[in-house]
Structure formats: C-alpha cells, structure tokens
Amino acid sequence: MVNLRAMLLRVESAWSVHPLAFHLVSALRTVRSGDTLLVAFRWFVVVCQAATLLITWPLWQVRSLPPMLPALPLPYFDMGAVLLVSLALILVRPKIGIVLHTALMAYAVLIDQTRLQPEIVSLIFLLWGTLPDPNLKTLARAHLIALWCFAGLNKLLSPAFMNSGAQWMLTGLIPTPPSWLRDNFGFVIVAAESGTGLLAIFPRTRKLAGLMALGLHLGILLDLSPLGHNWNQSVWPWNAALAFAGLALIAPWHESLPRTLKDSRWFVRVLAIYLLVAPVGFYFGVTDAYLAHNLYSSNIPSASTSGSLNPGVTWTAFNVPLPPEHRLFEQFFYRSCHPGNSMVIYDSRWWFRIQGLAERHLTCPAEGARAK
Q1: What is residue 360's three-state secondary structure?
Q2: Fewest CB within a 10 Å sphere: which of 26, 216, 242, 289?
Q3: Rounded to the nearest 5°, which phi and psi values hold at 344?
Q4: Residue 296: its pLDDT value, please?
Q5: pLDDT digits (tens, 9 = 90+) for 281-327
Q6: What are the two backbone dihedrals, phi and then psi, of residue 57, each rounded to the nearest 5 degrees?
Q7: What is the DSSP string of 114-134?
C-alpha cells in the first residue's frame, strides 16, 4: 500500500528548492497535516464549481440581452475569469480563496440575479464545510439536511411532479418501465431525497445517509446525462459533488444535532436553524424557490409573454433557467419589452391565491423597455 504521507514528503522535498513551487508545496503541507478526505473533497468541489462556470460561461459576462437583473445599482464587470482565479486560489490558500470566491460570487449575483442558481449556492456551502472549523461544517451539514429533506417534500407537495415530472425522470433510467413503478416513482424519489436528509440527522444512520446520497445523486447524474435525457448540463457537476458530500461531511459526523448546535457559536446556531427552517418560507413568498430547494417540482411561479422576450430564453443563452420569482419575471419583462407587449405571471401557491395573485398581468409601458 502506498504511504501517502511519505509520498507527499518526497514530492515536497523535490519541489521546495524551486521558488515557483512555493504555493504547490503549501498545498501539499495542507494535505499532509489536515484531513485528507476533506482536502480531496475540497479539490473535487473546486473542479465542480469551475465546470459549472464554464458550462454557463455567458451568464457571467456583461450583456444587454437577455437582460441583467441587478439587485443593487453597482458597476458591471465580466465575472467569469475572476471567479475561476478565486477557485484556483482555494487550492493553495483554502480559507482566503473561499472568502474571496464567496465575496466575488455575492457581487456577481447582486449585479445579476439570474446567477442565483441553486448549484452555485450549494457548492459554496460545500466549500466552506471542507475547512477545519467545526462551525463551518455545521453550516454545510445544515444546508445538506435541508436540501435533501425539502427537495423531497417540495416534490411531494407538487401534484404535477408526482403525476408527470417523476415519470419523465424515470424514462431517463428505464425507457419502458413497468406500470407499478411508473405510477409510484414520485414516492420513490421523495423517499430517497427526504429519507437521506432524515438519516443524516441521527448519528447511528449517518453512514447509511452517506451511501444513500452517493446512490441518489449518481442516479440523478445518470438520468440527466447523455445516457439519459441529456438535459440541464449546469447541474451535472453539482450532482457529482453532492454524491460524495454525504461521505465527506455527514458520515464522519458523530455528535447529535442538538449537541452540535449547542457547541456552535451563537450566530452559527442561529444561521444553521435558519437554513433548516427557511425553506418553509417559500409557501408564503418569503424564501426564493431555489433557496428553498424546489428542484424539478412544478409548484413554482411561471410566466408567459406575448410579443416580448420569453424568460425561457435563458435556457438557450446560459444553460440555466431564470429563477422563478415574481420580482425577476417583472424585471426581466420591463428590461426587454416593447410597447404593447404583455406578460402573465402564474402562481399556484395557496398564499398567493388567497391574495388574488394567482395570475398577474403586466403591460409594457408606452416608452418600451426600461430599467427597473
């Protein structure tokens, strides 16, 4: 068996005489002195985030159409290259690199909310979880538990997914499935996703949760890959990372969830609890759909247009959907429409129906497209 420690010592000794190898040697020391599994997982997540940026490259550049949707009136910059540089920095200076990458990504989202994609946010949480600080691991673990639990629950509460979307996913794995499996596959997906999240809560079942996550996300990756539906390439790297996240972050976790929260700093405890319960806010219009882990469910807002640019154009332009939020549909419409164009926003959530917001009609102002 190869002795990893001895091998790293030999490589470090050979390279340290060359000044250009300084940062590589630092990275090797990190591997040698730290948790090898977590360091390997960190490098893998970096590769997955970089692959996501490359798959969605036009999304990270300044453009006129499809319109950018800023949250704040900040200067626009092409962000793709600097985000890749910050990822490279993580390999040699993990903490500094992750802080820089998170800050740059936050700025990128503030100048264009189209970039608020679930895979981008989730991979950042996974990166933070690879650092030695147990408080950061707590946040990454809370994110994973919420992701798995609510991804399943949101699908269960989506009749269109249970009766149609799940069957479409099944055909990517089995082209002609038996009727009993086709009719119940929605429940299989719900049990797999929410079950993984529930298993991750309890110390005795966390190794099983890690194995469940591995099978679940490799299955999703296969379903979406060229061997299946060949669809939604931007989440392929994310599912690859999530497949190993359970083994890297959940399986080695021994403390109970209450004990973990009690031992965390107070603001980490508050943030972790927020991550665990915030997805409920989606049903009251408080939490964005993607931040509430609505993934492939069909109970999210949608929009159609007449005459103007359709929000679905982001699939073709960037390989991602426009985040399904009222404010973003409106902003997209007003920044791209012409006089006489119209948009209808549909929302099936109970909270929106009782407020008369199940169907909203927008009309382009006489002066045409405008910043809003």
Answers
A1: strand
A2: 26
A3: -120, 130
A4: 87
A5: 999 999 999 999 999 888 999 999 999 899 999 999 999 999 999 99
A6: -45, -50
A7: GG--HHHHHHHHHHHHTSS-H
What is the rounded distance in angstroms from the CA atom of residue 78 to the CA atom of residue 72? 16
Backbone angles phi and psi of 342, in degrees to 5? -140, 160
Identify the CA nearest to 219 among candidates 175, 156, 173. Answer: 173
pLDDT of residue 193: 98
The residue behind tokens 């996550």 is 213
Q: Whose structure tokens read 């609505």?
A: 294
Query: Cis omega (within 30 of 0) on the bond before 66?
Result: yes
What pLDDT does residue 369 have?
63
The residues, ordered by sequence, that sit 6+ positions from 184 with a Cβ below 8 Å of its Cβ are none
pLDDT in tens, 114-139: 999 999 999 999 999 999 999 999 99
Alpha helices in 22-165 (DSSP H): 22-33, 36-55, 80-92, 94-111, 118-129, 134-156, 159-160
According to the model, what pLDDT value does residue 34 have? Answer: 42
pTM: 0.90
Backbone angles phi, psi at 3, to 5 degrees: -85, 105
Q: Quick check: 109 pLDDT over 80?
A: yes
How far apart (Å, rounded) are the C-alpha atoms in residues 114 and 359? 22
Q: Under the phi-then-psi rule, with left for phi > 0, alpha for psi from -120 to 50, and beta for the rest, what region is 342?
A: beta
Task: Give the whole-angstrom CA distance, residue 372 versus residue 291.
Answer: 23
Q: What is the spatial distance between Cα 213 and Cα 149, in angstroms, rounded to a whole number?
A: 12
| Per-residue pLDDT reduced to its tens digit, 150-159 | 999 999 999 9
Q: How far apart are CA 233 and CA 294, in angstroms?
A: 18
Please name the residues in contact with 160: beta carbons below 8 A apart, sequence gap of 6 or more: 298, 299
Q: Residue 24 corresponds to which amino acid?
A: L
Specify whether the CB–CB gap between 114 and 320 falls below 8 A: yes
